[in-house]
Amino acid sequence: MKEQPETRRQKPPRYSFSRIDSFKRCRLQYKFRYIDGLRTEVETIEAFMGNQVHEALKDLYNFIRNRVIKPEGWLLSHYEDLWKKNFHSSIKIVRSELSADDYFEKGKKCLTDYYNQYHPFDQTKIVKTEDPMYFTLRSREEEFPFFGILDRLDWNDKEKRFEIHDYKTSANLITQEEADQDLQLTLYLLALSEKWPEAQNARLIWHFLLFNKEIMSSRSEKQLMDIQNVTVKKIKEIESCQDFPACKSVLCDWCDYQDICPLWKHPLQVEKLDANQYLKDPGVQLVSKYAELEEEKKQLKKKIFDIEQEQAKISEAAILLAEKEGLLLIDGSDHQLTVTIKEEMSAPARREDTAKWEALRHLLISEGRYVDVSTVNNNMLNRMIKVWPQEFVEKIKAFLAKKVIKKVDLKTKS
């Protein structure tokens, strides 16, 4: 189920899988949702459909907990009632080739397949459905409050173990390897282990409803500790973050904040204009003029390239003439060509002869001469800062200054 966002105004902030996942996908989206606390009425049709399917299954299993097995017709009718009751005009359909009715039918098919697969629902005993889970991640003396909603918790009486069930209406089916590394259910397993220590051997089960397929996994005690440490490290990264850039990806079309995102704000604004208004838009005019100049630059570069090719041929002919006639200067009507022919040392290029390049570099270092031929430049620093240890980066910060780079790049509109 979709977890409700919480803002950093809460002390301390309560983290969730959705919160961490948002930071990984797009830091600007994270800032809008969890720091600025911006709320939006926009909901994608995929999320809406998933919520109605989750709600229908929750209500079905609440009856099953009380030993009441509702017929399939009741489940489908209940799903339809939920859909009609909760559908609203702000629901966003990204895939224009599909309608809301198409998504309704997909959800209905999910429920039909699921019902037929597990009826009469006597595989396990239902412990909880849609259970809010509040727990704490710990690292040394630090503690981080966490929150999540577990779709369903079962007790498998035959195997004497808990089962954590998660419903997915996604059109993407994860692999076994991805399931074995999944963070969300691992966090829920950590939470469960706080209540029942023996729950560490619980089975994790994903129900990919569109495929009518189960994927199962489990975690060792070491894996649980590793996941906790990795998650705490990510939380510390989030809390120390000062820069929240937008990240363009295929998921942007499903984002709630496109209308205020600097990557999408203007395209969405001009998309609504008619042809005349579009052409008069200041931004559209700037891009058009920039594109014209860029095309002119390309033509000039082509001309310069052709000229340089011709000059190279002339240079080659001039050198041949100078060698033949023993000349160092060739005279012309208004200009002269000075011809220089000499030998000089050339270092091996790394990409052409890596072994020789490395050997020369090692010799220069061992002889204390490397500093004479090396240099400090921005390209090198910006590349290496990403891979150097953080402790070393902190040491060199005193020598660095922040510089604002302003530039534009022309791209083809897809």
What does this structure look like?
Helix content is about 50%, strand content about 15%. Strands 1, 4, 5, 6, 7 and 8 form a six-stranded mixed β-sheet that branches. A two-stranded parallel ribbon has the order 2-3. The protein is built from 15 helices and ten strands. It has helices at about 15-25, 25-35, 45-65, 70-85, 100-120, 175-180, 185-195, 220-240, 265-270, 275-280, 280-325, 355-365, 370-375, 380-385, 390-395; strands spanning about 15, 45, 90, 125-140, 140-155, 160-170, 205-210, 215, 330, 335-340. It has a domain at about 15-240: Alpha-Beta Complex (Lambda Exonuclease, Chain A), CATH 3.90.320.
According to DSSP, the number of beta strands is 10
CATH architecture of the domain at 15-240: Alpha-Beta Complex
- One letter per element, helices H and strands E, the order comes to EHHEHHEHEEEHHEEHHHHEEHHHH
The main β sheet shows up as: 6 strands, mixed
User: What is the structural class?
Assistant: alpha/beta
CATH domain fold name of the domain at 15-240: Lambda Exonuclease, Chain A
Total helices: the number is 15
Q: How far is the N terminus from the C terminus?
A: 34 Å
Radius of gyration: 32 Å
Q: Which CATH C-level class of the domain at 15-240 is it? A: Alpha Beta
> Approximately what portion of the residues adopt beta-strand conformation?
5-15%
Low-confidence stretches: 1-10
What is the share of helical residues? 40-55%
Assembly status: single chain
